[in-house]
Amino acid sequence: MNVIEIKNLRKIYNEKTVPVNAVNDVSLSFKAKEFTAIVGASGSGKTTLLNLIGGIDTPTSGNVFINGKNVSELSENKMTQFRRDNIGFVFQQYNLLPVLTAKENVEFIMELQKKPKEEREKRVTVLLTEIGLADKINERPAKLSGGQQQRVAVARALAHKPTFVIADEPTANLDSKSTADLLNIMEELNQKEGTTFIFSTHDQRVVDRAKRVIVFEDGKVISDTSK
Amino acid sequence: MTTKLAWRNIWRNKTRTTVFLLAAFFGFAMALFTLNLMKSISQQRLDDAKNLQTSDLQIHKMGFQDDKDITLFIPNAENVIQKVKENANVDVVAKRISTNAVAASPENSIGCEIKGVEPTTEREISVVQDFLVEGSYLSTDMRMPILISKKTADKLKLKLKSKIIITLKNTQEEIVGGSFRVAGIFATPSTPFDENTVIVNYTDLQELGSISEPQEIAIKIKDPTKLIETQSGIQETLSAEYEVNNWKELLPELNAFDAFINMVGVLFTIIVILGLGFSLMNIMNMIVQERTHEIGMLRAIGQSKFKVFSMLLNEAGVLMMIGAVSGILFGYVLTLIASKVGVPISSGLDMLGIRPVMYPKLNPEIIIMVIVIAKILTVAIASIPAYRAMRIKPNAVLRD
């Protein structure tokens, strides 16, 4: 079954002045447990596509269905709630809250969801162990390396058991070893948790590990291959 | 988590936070101390005037308050006193005669208000005897004793046991005079009282002025919080011929001064907190500017607009609260110290009945007022940057 279905999605910036077709009539679908890389040059529109799928931007036309629900029609508040409950985000710059510890960062969304403390603690312990940072549970991000921070970001994205995770260039700031470690973790969690991963990347090492690769150019899908 | 997050966030820039907290600390401390001092000055003027002149309640014949005519005495005064004493909240009742007179010595003369009082009851209702600097209170072993102030004694060049001639208009509209002897000299904190008042025995003045009944019945009550209730209770037992006034009605200028002091206090607090508020707004604006990316991330991962708004308000609230609580505590300590050692006040202000050294008291209502104003202004001021933060789009976090 398709977890995400995109139909005739279009995003035009500067419509009234110099229109830019960032996403141009794209239709795609993603199944559960997919591990997909969206590849393309800078300015090809892959980040805009991720924004639209993740509901943090609204399309000019077209629709995004998540588990059969047309999220393009949701109000801003409903969309925020939908993101909180169904989508995990991993950002290029990690974007952990610097004043919170690794544990607190991971449980932050669960706090927003008002999950009970016991459930939060249990989940945080499992995830931080999975990503190999059980001993860094009380460290703040400044005390962690880039790779470790990104692993915590992955744990945060998965903490509330989302339907899918969107990762925007997650390895862009990591060295080879950290990239390999992160990919291992993401693959393992993809299998264990059954969460769909969609990430944009320039990194060939990431592309090599992806099960499906979508090549994007000028706002359009020019190839979509599954391995 | 919200308060913990707010607490940690405000310490992300230690210098900025410390500077603000120092400003808030001293601002609140000074505001509280100054307000307590001002309130105490106002309260002291009221207390002095009440204790020296009016007492809690007074009864007069209707119309006496308008022209203070010596002939407007209280008919059946003894009956009235009996009725007043039946009120459960009445403590002491004293009758008085009061009229305008001229006090003269061989050296000089002055216009004054002469008060005829019954020493035994008057001592329980007035505090003049506490301010005697020489002599004693209307002693019985002296014929026609009189109490005058130090200021009057200096003007008339009088000493203890000196003679003083009092001239007044009696109830028959004749000018009469009597020779009194200085039994005591007082110096109260109230310059207007000291410059204008001489006190004699009730019977001496009664005789001199040919006055059969008192013009004033002064009442001290047991529970000052039941002032209005007691006033109306007494008025109800008397006919419309009598007028019962409380000290606030009898001293309208002091009451107005108290209201003015309260208004100045509120304005002063608003100005101090507003200054801090603008500083807070500046800080909050910087915070929003610096953390646009982070707030975008929070919005992206599902933090609602309302939560972002309240997170920023929380940070502003925590900042202001630390400054306010520590400042108020320091202001409290300062007031406590000042209440023991005293605060010297400009000597020229004794003309207004202000004592040269003030011992401010801590007024709990001032603390409540400062906290309420701080709270309202913090919410109002921090709402602007918080609203800006709330409008940050979640895609601010992703690359363009």
TrEMBL record, chain A:
GO terms for molecular function: ATP binding. Residues 4-227 form the ABC transporter domain. CDD domains: ABC_MJ0796_LolCDE_FtsE (cd03255). Keywords: ATP-binding, Nucleotide-binding, Transport. The keyword RNA-binding does not apply. Pfam families: ABC_tran (PF00005). This is ABC transporter ATP-binding protein. It comes from Winogradskyella aquimaris.
From TrEMBL, chain B:
The keyword Transmembrane helix applies. Keywords: Cell membrane, Membrane, Transmembrane, Transmembrane helix. It is found in: Cell membrane. It is a multi-pass membrane protein. InterPro entries: ABC3_permease_C (IPR003838), Lipoprotein-release_system (IPR051447). This is FtsX-like permease family protein. Residues 267-394 form the ABC3 transporter permease C-terminal domain. Belongs to the ABC-4 integral membrane protein family. LolC/E subfamily. Pfam families: FtsX. The chain crosses the membrane at residues 260-288, 309-334, 366-387.
